[in-house]
DNA sequence: TAGTTGACTCTAG
DNA sequence: GCTAGAGCCAACT
């Protein structure tokens, strides 16, 4: 299980997402150098179930939609978490997504 | 071993 | 403006 280099990178980026901010799979994928590997970010999130330090709820698709909300055990768990952190979610969509959007390339660089 | 799937994104029609 | 198809990589069956 030491072959999670790509996953580890994803976790590292997601872990650095500040509270009240969200990012997208493609953004992380591109930041890692694989813009077309956005799916892999999703897979990384799928494996992040054993990583309580990885706020997967702060990672959404490029539309700001909670695509993976269903994978949190409850279809509203992701929304509840985001709203609890100050992110307004409406109908599985992040309100002012552009305002709460967090770009690793801008924050880390 | 090989085939299919998947929490995405982009380009083309 | 919306719908459809293609692409990437790893895990699961």
TrEMBL record:
Gene3D superfamilies: Winged helix-like DNA-binding domain superfamily/Winged helix DNA-binding domain (1.10.10.10). Keywords: DNA damage. CDD domains: ATase. InterPro entries: ATL_DNA_repair (IPR052520), MethylDNA_cys_MeTrfase_DNA-bd (IPR014048), MethylDNA_cys_MeTrfase_DNAb (IPR036217), WH-like_DNA-bd_sf (IPR036388). GO terms for biological process: DNA repair. Residues 5-87 form the Methylated-DNA-[protein]-cysteine S-methyltransferase DNA binding domain. It comes from the Bacteria. Pfam families: DNA_binding_1. GO terms for molecular function: catalytic activity. NCBIfam families: ogt. This is Methylated-DNA-(Protein)-cysteine S-methyltransferase DNA binding protein. It comes from Runella slithyformis (strain ATCC 29530 / DSM 19594 / LMG 11500 / NCIMB 11436 / LSU 4). The lineage of its organism: Bacteria, Pseudomonadati, Bacteroidota, Cytophagia, Cytophagales.
């Amino acid at each position: 299980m030491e072959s999670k280099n790509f996953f580890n990178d994803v976790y590292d980026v997601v872990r650095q997402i500040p509270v009240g901010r969200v990012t997208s799979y493609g953004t992380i994928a591109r930041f890692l150098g694989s813009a077309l590997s956005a799916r892999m970010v999703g897979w990384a999130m799928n494996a992040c179930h054993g990583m309580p330090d990885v706020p997967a709820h702060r990672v959404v698709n490029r539309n700001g939609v909670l695509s993976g909300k269903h994978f949190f055990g409850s279809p509203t768990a992701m929304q509840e978490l985001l709203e609890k952190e100050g992110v307004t979610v409406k109908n599985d969509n992040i309100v002012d997504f552009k305002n709460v959007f967090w770009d690793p390339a801008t924050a880390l660089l």
